[in-house]
Structure to design on (328 residues):
């Protein structure tokens, strides 16, 4: 991407004007909070990814990571019904005992596309997480062009989720995906057709995405305009971006945090990685135009074919492709 094209993208996404209102002052040493779109909820600018929690060999260490994150200012917890065969939710549920649930803005995701499957998965998630309600539930892996129609169809997953919200099982509704910004845009268009406004949208936002099939350039402006909470994920592309040797972990985090994201979700499978995320959030100052352009210049060549964004260009990250039964 040429520098002038990136600067144009900055104006389109409203980064310069949108990032400051998202930031909320925090005492020295604390994690700054941002506003989750039109919900008005305050969430930590760094969020704890759920997949890596269940990927840790030691369950007790997983619990320690979660509780340390909550004690030190991270309140946004990410998870999913299918992560590690449910172990990510089980471990998080154990960590949220002893009053820790009250410290958390708890999100998980479901794969079901029909009402029955969606409700079954939601109830299983609530049981594993040892809670009677979620702060946010998202439709997971919207990675096929017909996913929106399936979710919004009569008898589809949205019907069940709206009923569950009315019953007090969840507070807000969103969706997530990592495959194509055009699929995200289609999901938002189908929502508009049904006069439904999502509370949040989760998507990859990183130094590589800006160059290739970009969620930042295509989806982010829509979310800013609609005041939908932006959940950035894969700031390091599941660490694959780091293999390019073009950027550091902290540069990756600060780039994503400098976009109008409500929260940047990052996987932490060790205390060391958690401390890195905490420090990056505490030290964060929005990158200026020159700094952003410099990072994109460093990653332009490596990013051009999507070779470091395998979640876009392969099925390696597509759980529901490998397990279509999860969709119902």
């Amino acid at each position: 991407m040429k520098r002038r094209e990136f600067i144009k993208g900055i104006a389109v996404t409203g980064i310069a004007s949108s990032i400051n209102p998202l930031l909320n002052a925090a005492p020295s040493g604390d994690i700054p909070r941002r506003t989750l779109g039109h919900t008005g909820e305050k969430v930590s600018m760094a969020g704890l990814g759920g997949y890596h929690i269940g990927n840790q060999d030691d369950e007790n260490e997983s619990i320690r990571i979660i509780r340390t994150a909550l004690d030190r200012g991270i309140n946004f917890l990410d998870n999913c019904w299918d992560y590690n065969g449910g172990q990510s939710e089980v471990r998080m549920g154990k960590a949220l005992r002893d009053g820790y649930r009250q410290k958390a803005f708890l999100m998980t995701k479901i794969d079901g596309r029909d009402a029955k499957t969606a409700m079954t998965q939601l109830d299983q998630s609530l049981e594993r997480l040892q809670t009677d309600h979620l702060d946010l539930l998202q439709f997971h892996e919207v990675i096929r062009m017909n996913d929106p129609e399936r979710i919004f169809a009569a008898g589809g997953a949205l019907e069940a989720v709206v009923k569950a919200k009315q019953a007090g099982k969840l507070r807000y509704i969103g969706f997530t995906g990592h495959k194509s910004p055009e699929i995200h845009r289609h999901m938002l268009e189908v929502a508009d057709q049904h006069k439904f406004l999502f509370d949040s949208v989760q998507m990859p936002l990183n130094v590589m995405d800006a160059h290739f099939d970009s969620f930042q350039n295509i989806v982010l402006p829509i979310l800013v305009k609609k005041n939908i909470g932006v959940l950035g994920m894969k700031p390091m592309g599941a660490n694959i971006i780091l293999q390019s040797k073009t950027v550091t972990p902290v540069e990756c985090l600060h780039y994503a945090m400098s976009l109008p994201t409500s929260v940047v979700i990052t996987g932490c499978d060790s205390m060391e990685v958690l401390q890195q995320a905490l420090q990056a959030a505490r030290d964060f100052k929005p990158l200026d135009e020159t700094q952003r352009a410099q990072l994109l210049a460093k990653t332009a060549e490596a990013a051009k074919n999507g070779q470091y964004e395998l979640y876009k260009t392969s099925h390696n990250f597509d759980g529901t492709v490998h397990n279509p039964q999860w969709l119902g």
About this structure: The longest strand covers residues 170-176. The CA atoms of residues 135 and 171 lie 5 Å apart.
